Amino acid sequence: MEQGEQPSRDYRRITRAIAFLNERQPAQPSLDAVADAAGLSPFHFQRLFRRWAGVSPKQYLQYLTVEHAKALLGASESVLGASYGTGLSGPGRLHDHFVAVNAVTPGEYRTGGAGLTLRWGVGDTPYGAALIALSPRGICALSFVDGASDEALTQLHAAWPNATVKHDAAAIDAARRRIIEATAGNGQVLVHLSGTNFQVSVWQALLTIPEGQLATYGGLAQAIDRPGSSRAVGQAVGRNAIAWLIPCHRVIRASGALGGYRWDRVRKQAMLARESARETSRQTRASA
Known about the structure:
This protein is of the alpha/beta class and about 290 residues long. The chain has helices spanning about 5-25, 30-35, 40-50, 55-60, 65-90, 105-110, 150-160, 170-185, 195-205, 215-225, 230-240, 265-285, and strands spanning about 100-105, 115-125, 130-135, 140-145, 165, 190-195, 215, 250. The protein has 12 helices and 8 strands.
């Protein structure tokens, strides 16, 4: 079985369970009911969570609550600014150490990718299928797709209007494998960012939010020394073209509410809960 395929199938069942919980949360549905919504027996549902998230369903569900999000915000905001400053002192190497950044210059941004050849394809990830695009300088797009990839491909052309775009399934499958390995702690991936100086500064700040922690739009604005620009920061976060690797899903509202996510709010819930579970497991192992 290809690495990443099983987690993606698991993810589809996870999202059905989360959607069911969102609808029935006041009633506090039983494990049997949630398992049934996911199309599994309670036994197999338990195994699914252990395999995909590393924790039991009961443990996982606590990471979906607003209370948990608020607690993470309290722990995270105080370190965001320091992390951002430290991260920028290195040569494009930021907090998520498996990601290294190549950013276009203002001149390159104005050319819209002229002279570049981008290769694209659709690959499987732990959070579902994604259109992945690759430039000679790194991954330049990762957009989750639920069904046809036409919209994501249109967005790729819009972001790099003067580049040559070619389908290359083999190259993208190799890139997908590198991403899976890097997120597991083995190796590194390069990302190629195309945006204004302000947008790039916001995306770099996103990389300083550690897995298992969260930030607010206001916190990001403070971190990049642009207090009062929360709205502009939010717009830049929303323009992020490289899902998962540039973790825009780790930004929520100051109230603890998740807010929107261009690749589906339930996916954002699943990503954050899984990351929190993984971080808790790491801390538990480290303290043992």
